[in-house]
Amino acid sequence: MKKIVFCASESLPFIKTGGLADVIGSLPEKLVALGNEVSVFIPLYKKIAHTMHHELKFETEFYFNFKYHDVNVRVLSKEHNGVKFYLIENANYFERDMLYGYHDDGERFAYFQRAILEYLNYINYKADVIHAHDWHCGMIPCLIKEKWSVNPLFSQVKTVFTIHNLAYQGIFSPQMLESCLGLGFYLYENGKLQFDDCISFMKAGIEYADKVTTVSETYAKEITTSHYGERLEAVLNSRIHDLCGIVNGIDTNMWCSKNDDNLVYNFNRLNVHKMKRANKLALQKELGLEEDEKVMLVSIVTRLTWQKGIHLILERLNDIYNEPIQMIILGSGDLYMEQQLSNFVNSVPKTKMVFINGYNESLAHRIYASSDLFLMPSLFEPCGISQLISMRYGTLPLVRETGGLKDTVEAFNEYEKTGNGFSFTHYNSQSMLDALRYAIHIYYANKTDWNLIVKNAMKTDVSWEKSAVKYSLLYDEILKYK
Ligand code: ADP
Question: Which mutation among 386, 391, 392, 400 tests ligand 1's pocket best, with the greatest number of atoms within 8 A of CB?
Answer without folding.
Answer: 386
